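task queued by scheduler; priority normal; single chain, no ligands, no partner chains; default sampling; output format set to structure tokens
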Amino acid sequence: MIKNETIAKRPPLCDSRQVACITKERVRLRILHTNDIHSHFDQMPRIAEWIKRLKENTGEAHTLTLDIGDHLDRMRSETEGTEGLANIAVINATGYDAVTLGNNEGLTYTPDVLDRLYGEAARFPVVLGNMVAARTGTAPAWMKPWHIVEKAGLRIGLIGATAAFSLFYRLLGWEISDPYDTIRQAVEELRPQTDIIVLLSHLGLRHDEKIAEDIPGIDVILGGHTHHLLTEPLSVGSTWICAAGKHGQYVGAVDLAYERQTKRLELVGAGVHATAEMNGDPELQAVIDLYANQANETLSREVVRLDRDMPIDWYGESPLGNLLAAGLRRWVDAEIGLVNAGQLLGGPQQGPVSAGTLLKLCPSPINPCRLKLTGAQLRQALEESLLPEFMDKPLFGFGFRGKVLGTLCLDGLSVEFDPEGAPYSKIVSVRVGESPMIDDRLYTVGTIDMFTFGIGYLSIGQGIEPEFFLPEFLRDVLLHELRNAKALQDSSRGRWIKRQKHVGN
């Protein structure tokens, strides 16, 4: 894998001196691609300017523009305040020929919202083969299992696949099939009908490499999901693998030449273009500004009025952290509530709280979860949460939109600890309700889906019988608790109790 900080030389551009490369027998095709933009609207005008320049250079008829998923991210006000319509308007205006969906589209919006976005507002096809509605066993009309587009007289077969988070998708009414089987079948159908096959893969680099090894007939894989930046393509068998990093920092470009007589496909050049080099397309900026104003108006509405400040502390106990832990416990009907303090980026103050403020304070698209943990597993997590190396740990991905992990916020537990004790020996005693915690007993715990992916406090990820609660996010749970006067009062009650030193005479 190419290191992210390495910037490749620009791929060759098909300029006026290279017109001879486009003939009846030798056809030039440029594929432009983006992935994992995650609603970075600040980058979208720069992306649009690069795409416009590269299209002008090669010609609209010889350029195919694709997005590989996770364009939307509900942490951004433009997306949240318009239910994704701002992103669709940007994709429309930029001139994408097709997209696939990532988990940030498929798992953070309900099917009816996706119908409005992609079935009504979008002016481009969605190519996704391994996702169907659970109720009907078929895909919605706006979702194509594969798609053929014609450019420069070439028939290009597009296949789309997204990461198979089967259990999560099922809770939203989708069934996700094995992407390998889907891709293999699509290649078999498309190969006789097309000149070139391109896979839009929101699966991650490891899967892209394996697909290239195991499934012949794919010419180009455009990747995403793991945010990998390939400053030059990987060559695996007869397949080229490309990817453009994350957050709209780059636009990828792949230049191909196709010999009609021999049906030979040649890679002329490929790489990435840094969007920082562009000033930004003013027409697209105007589109974004229009939707940003609409979003701000929507998010300015008051959702709760508080009679007190609710501070948060990433490194110790706080009312807002306690409130969220208690809310998770009640939301999923568990004995214990646990959440890392780093999920909360600030605390609301006394007075009116808007939907936009709540979004800023709790931006992560993370869902509630219930699982079972032993007392010993809980004790390990509690010990870890007292150590700086865990509290200060930065996290990336898995829905987390904060800065550091932070300590554990609790409910249903009272923990006596010695802050001066040795690491992993700071806990003096733990009580669940009124009873001492038993190491080999299983307890039901309300927490967050992020921990089940094996990040953060690792022993929590070892829990069994996980159940996920979708489509609600943490901020939905938090808002429910902020409206509960009794919960607000109880949030000031201490769960972490420092052991008192006994001073002799």
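post-processing summary
- The first helix runs from residue 44 to 58.
- Residues 1-21 have pLDDT under 50 and may be disordered.
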